[in-house]
Model the fold of this input.
Amino acid sequence: MPVLRIALTVNGVPVTRAVEPRTSLADFLRYDLELTGTHVGCEHGVCGACTVRVDGVLVRGCLMLAVQADGAGVETIEGVAGRGELADLQQAFAEENALQCGFCTPGMLLVAQELLAASPGASEREIREGLASQYCRCTGYHAIVQAVKKAGRGRRRT
Amino acid sequence: MSERIEAGVSYIGLSVVRPQTARLLAGRGVYTDDVKLPRMTHVAFVRSPHAHARIARIETDAARALAGVVAVVTGPELARVCSGWVGTLAHFAGMKSATQHALALDRATWQGEPVAAVVAESRAIAEDGAARVAVAWEPLPAVTDPETALDPGTPVIHPELGDNLAFALELNAGNVEEAFKNADAVVAETFTMGRHTGVTLEPRVILADFDPSERRLTVHHSFQAPNMMQDILARHLGLEEQNVRVICKDVGGSFGIKVHVYPDEMATCALAVLLGRPVKFLADRHESFLSDIHARDHRVRAEVAVRRDGTILGMKLDDLTGIGPYSVYPRTSAVEGNQTVRLTPGCYRFRDYAARLRVVLQNKTPMCQYRAVGHPIAFAVMEGMVDHVARALELDPVEVRRRNFITGDMYPYTAPTGYFFERLSHEECLDKLLEMSEYRKLGAERDALRRRGVYRGLGLCAFIELTTPGPAFYGVGGARISSQDGVTLRLEPSGTVTCLTGVTEQGQGTDAMLAQVVATAVGVRLEDVRVLTGDTLVSPYGGGTWASRGAGIGGEAALQSGKALKQNVLRVAAAVLGGEPEDLDVRLGRVVDALTGEVKLDLAELGRVAYFRPDTLPKDFQSELTVTRHYVPRHQGFAFTNGVQLSHVEVDVETGGVRLLGHWAVEDCGRIINPRLVDEQIRGAIVQGLGAALLEHCVYDGAGQLLTASLMDYLVPMAAEMPDIVVGHVETPTAYAEGGFKGAGEAGTAGAPGAVLNAVNDALAPLGARVSAQPITPGVVLRALGRL
Ligand code: FES
Ligand code: FES
Done:
C-alpha cells in the first residue's frame, strides 16, 4: 500500500505521519495517534460516535480520510475536554446520568457543545433535534436532553 | 469537647452521582478495541453470502500471498484447536440442536456464518485478505418461514436431527376447554412480533493473547459474563481453567447481546492459541447485523374466554418462533419461547391456561436472549388481548385489568405456569400511573380531538419482570453459568475500601450501586469506596450482569460483605483501643463509641496499625481486613417485579405514521438503591421497546438474505422522535434477602411494545381498524386502514 505524508495539528500539537490514503480520520486518530476517545460505532456515517472537530467544524471521523485532514487543525474529545471547555457539560452529564456505557458520550458532548454555543437557551425540542445526528442506545435520550438543558441554563446565567 | 458522629449515613435510596464516570466523560474510557498489545494481529472473517450452501472448496493462496497476512485458516484446521458445541439445556426436555463450530466445516447455514479467517498485521490487510479468499459455493434451498419449517416438504437443515424442531412445549393448567365452554364471549387474535437485534453502539470485540510457554490465555472482551467465557474457553480450547483470564474493561452497551458464545469470537481465541500471539476481532456494523444474535420473531395466536363483565376465564396460546440454524450456546434459543408462554398470563388470576410452543430452525441469523427475553411478546399479546376484550364488550380497559389482576390479598401466589410471586403490586402501580399521567384527562382530550379528525390513542400495558434468577435458570440444565455472586472487600491502609465483584458493569451503574451498599454497610464515605469489576483473575467467581441480577444478587452479596468487614474492623479497633467490639461502631470512616458517637479512631490510623504496626497489638490477635461474602437466591426461582406503562400516540391516518406524544411507567423493583439509576434503566429500556414497537426490524427476503444490514436500513430510535418518559415507583422489598433488592433492567422493554400496540389500536378504533404486527410501520397502519 502506498503511503502519503500528512502534517496537521491535533489538539494543538503538530503531528506528521505517513498514512495509507484509505485510512479514515477516526482510525488515524485511534490507531496511529492512540487517541481512543473518538469512538467508532458504525463506520458508515450514521451513529455519530466518531464526531471530531476539523478546523472548528464537527465532522464524522469515519467519513473523512486522514489525508483530507492534511494541514488542518483537528480536535478530539481528549483535547477539548482536557482544556476544560466542556467542564459544565461534563458535570451536567454526570449529575443527570446522561451516560450509561459512555460509548456515545464523546460525540454527544461535542455536538451538545456546538448546540449550546449557537443557542444556550435551546428548548427541549431544539435540543432533541440538535442531537438527532447522534445515536445513544443506552439512555433513551431523556437524561441527555436534561443535561444539555441544565448546562445551557448555567451558561445563560454567567 | 471531643468530636462526635451521632449517626452513620445510609446511601441506599439516594440518587448519588455515579462515582466512576469521569473517565468516560473525558474520552479516557478503555473499551476493548482501545487495548493494544505487542505483536498484535487482526482477524477478518470470510462469511457465507448464502443462507444455506455447501462449501465445495476454499482457495486461500491469493490471500496468503498478500504482504502482511499472517495466516489463513479454515474450519477443519481450526476444529483441531477448538472443539464444537451444542446449545441445549437438560431441563428443556427433548430439546435438540446440531454441533456448531467456530468456522463452518463443510456447510454454511446462514448468511453471515464465518467459514474462513484471515489474520494479518492490520485490520485493513486482514479484510483485503478475506476478499481474496475464493469459496466455491453450492447453494442449497433455504428454510426461512417458520410456518412451513416443519412441513414434510421442507428441507431439514441438520439431517442428523431428523427435523427442524429444536424444542416444543405444552402447558396445560386447569381445564381450559371447560372455561371456553362457560364463556360469554371468546376473542382471538394472531400477533406477529418481528425480528430485531440489540445494536450495541460498540460492536462486539475481543482480543485474545496466548502465551504458549505456560499455556495461558488472556482475553480482553466486550462481554457481560467473564467467568462463563473463562469456563467455555478452557473447555473448548483444552486449557486449564486457572490459566484462562477474561478481562472486561469498559463495555459499550450489551443488552444481552454480549452474553453468548459467538463462533467468530471463539475462532479469534483459537487463532491466538494456534499462532501464539495476540489476535483482535472487531465486528464492523454490517457484520454485527449478520452475526449478533437477533431476538423475537414470534407468531403468537391467542384466544381468551371471558364473561360479559370482563372476567377472563381462560386462555389458549400458540407460539411459533424461528431461531436460526443453531440454538445459541450455552443459554440456548429456547428460553425466549419458554418465557413467553409462561409469562403471558402472569399479571392475572385466571387459572385455566393451555399453551403450545414450537421453536423451529431456519436459515437466518441465530436468535437468542436480548433484553427482556420473552417479556415484550408475552405482554404485547396479553395486554393486546385485554384491550381487545374491553373493546369487544364495551368495557373500560382499566376496569378489565382491575377485575382480573392478582390482588394484594392473594400473595404469596403460584401461577398456573409454575412461577412463584412473593408479592406484587399491580393495583398500586396502576393507581399511581393513572394519577401521574392524568389518564382520564388525556382520554377526554382524545375524545374531543377525534371529533376534529385527530386520532390519538392511549395504551396500557401491565407486566411482570423476571429478575434475580437462581440456579434453576441455567445451572440445573447443565450450563456452567454461575447464579451465585461474590463481593470481596479490602480495607486499604488509608482507610478506604476496594470492592471486587463478579457482577459486571456495562453502563447500568453497577459500580455506583455497589459502592452505595458497601459504604452504608461498612460505615465509610461513598467516595472512599472503589469498585472493580470484570477480571476473572481477581474478582470472586460469579455470573456477571444479565437477567436483571446485579442489584438483587450483587447488591445482597455487597451488603453481607460490608457487614462482615465492619465486624472485622471493629475487632481491630477493640484490639487497638481496648474494650469490646460491640461497644463501637464505624461511621463516616471513623470508629466511634456506639453509644455516644464520640470519635475514637480514624480508619486510616486503624489501617496503619493493622498493616504496618501489628507488633503493637496483642500477640494472639490477627486482623482480617479482606473479606468475601457470596449470595445466591435460594428461596425462590426468581424475584419477580411488576409494573404498568402507558403510551400516548397520535396516528396520522394519511401517512400511517405514529407519533409518540408521551410515555409513563410505574414499576416496583423492591427496595431502590439509587432512584436515578433505576429511572434511567427504565427509560433506556423503554426506548429499546419503543424501537421494537415502531422501527426496528431485521427484514429477510425469501432466500434468507438480510435486507436491513446497515444503519441506513435498520432504524434505531433517535432523540427527536422519542418522547419524554415519566417514571414512578412503588416499593415492595423482597423479604427473602436482607437488602430487599430486586432487579430493574428490563422492565421498560417488557412493557413498552404492548403499550404502543394498545395506544395505536385505541387511536384506530373509531376507524374500525386494528394492527397486530410489530414493528408498527406506516405500511402496517395503512394496510390496517385498507389504504394500502
Ligand atoms: S462511526 Fe462514524 S458515524 Fe458511526
Ligand atoms: S451511553 Fe451507551 S450508547 Fe449512549
Summary: The first helix of chain A runs from residue 25 to 32. The mean pLDDT of chain A is 97. Chain A has two domains: 4-81, 86-157. Residues 4-81 of chain A form a domain with the Ubiquitin-like (UB roll) fold (CATH 3.10.20.30).
